[in-house]
Amino acid sequence: MTLTKEAVLDRLKDVKDPELGKGLVELGMIRDVEVAGPAVRVTVALTMAACPMKTTIRDDVERAVRGLEGVEHVEVVLTAMTSEERARLFGREPSEMEGMKAVRRVLAVASGKGGVGKTTVTVNLSLALARKGHRVGILDADLHGPDIPLMLGITERPLGSGGMLLPVERHGLKVMSTGMLAGEGVPIIWRGALVNKAVKEFFGRVRWGELDFLVVDLPPGTGDAPLTLVQSIPMAGVVMVTTPQKVALSDVRRAFGLFRAKEVPVLGVVENMSFLRVPGSDQVMEVFGSGGGEKLAKAFKVPLLGKIPLDPAIREAGDAGRPAVLDEGSEAARAFDEVAERLLSVLPAVGEKEQ
Ligand SMILES: Nc1ncnc2c1ncn2[C@@H]1O[C@H](COP(=O)(O)OP(=O)(O)OP(=O)(O)O)[C@@H](O)[C@H]1O
């Protein structure tokens, strides 16, 4: 029996979308079937590029087609539906920024280079704001190194609902990360058009609900990715994280220049890994030099929001998924709390959406 496109489609009728509970064929998600001898390529249009179920869908399609007589090779190509297709499916297309409607302010956390503690600051600053009674969400936009789930101890995957993603709640924060979509240990390969789509979906297609702050963990450095991200949405401003050394400072200067050129306000500087307290004494060691954060803040006429100690407890807390700020009364908790307080005091009223 020769393998035909019709036979493949017939087989795919039984494969259901796990979220919608209906067949992929019926839902119009099978965009194309190509048959060449014993090889089959199926193109599946997901409802969202960042669909949390994409691996399951791909595996189900592959398994079903593999079960057909005469099939030796199966390739499943994933793509995303167009807005028109989605509108047809859900009756109404959620507008591009639907999920952001009730978000009052978006803050971004940036760094001139990787490894300075941008993610650590994002998580602890967000929690410090939440502990002051604000409703806070974190969007992990570091597509290639999404560490937020790890630092918050999140292992579950977000659910999808009507073409929107629902954030996962942890320690009172609402959280969304590409890391939660890929699953632990799965390398994240975002290619071409999927990257742009996923980033847009991450801003607009997450049902954040009412938030006072959405804190965005930007990709590190001064490449295209952080800049595109800050421009794709109105931001209240950027918090710049640096360590006191020279290299970090020259990188962060470049980042300052770039954000300013794009008219994104820089709200202030957080100096991370500022000093090491010698255990059991009042002595501190300035491991990475001193005064860098102050100099930078002065040069760019922005406030120094705070200095965070270099403290093994901060790293351990991050690794354990229980951020340091939760250890009430600790030096680290106090430092992050101060950053939150200063940030609140310098936030301009502009950029705030009234409810
Ligand atoms: N103040 C600190 N004291 C001790 N360890 C810290 C401190 N800040 C960050 N770290 C640790 O340093 C490492 C890098 O931190 P983090 O992942 O937050 O940096 P990052 O700037 O977000 O990195 P990347 O840009 O590569 O994503 C982590 O292991 C973190 O726990």
UniProtKB/TrEMBL annotation:
Origin: domain of life: Bacteria
One Pfam family it belongs to: ParA
Chain segments annotated as transmembrane: none
Annotated ranges, domain MIP18 family-like: 5-76
Stored InterPro entries: FSCA_dom_sf, MIP18-like, Mrp-like_CS, Mrp/NBP35_ATP-bd, NUBPL-like, P-loop_NTPase, YlxH/NBP35
UniProt KW Ribosomal protein keyword: no
GO biological process: iron-sulfur cluster assembly
Annotated residues for binding of ATP: 112-119
GO molecular function list: 4 iron, 4 sulfur cluster binding; ATP binding; ATP hydrolysis activity; ATP-dependent FeS chaperone activity; metal ion binding
CDD domains according to UniProt: Mrp_NBP35
Keywords, sorted A to Z: ATP-binding, Hydrolase, Iron, Iron-sulfur, Metal-binding, Nucleotide-binding
Cited PANTHER family: IRON-SULFUR PROTEIN NUBPL (PTHR42961:SF2)
Family from the record: In the C-terminal section; belongs to the Mrp/NBP35 ATP-binding proteins family. Belongs to the Mrp/NBP35 ATP-binding proteins family.
Alphabetized HAMAP family for the sequence: Mrp_NBP35 (MF_02040)
Complex formation: Homodimer.
Primary role: Binds and transfers iron-sulfur (Fe-S) clusters to target apoproteins. Can hydrolyze ATP.
Annotated protein name in UniProt: Iron-sulfur cluster carrier protein
Species per Swiss-Prot/TrEMBL record: Dissulfurirhabdus thermomarina
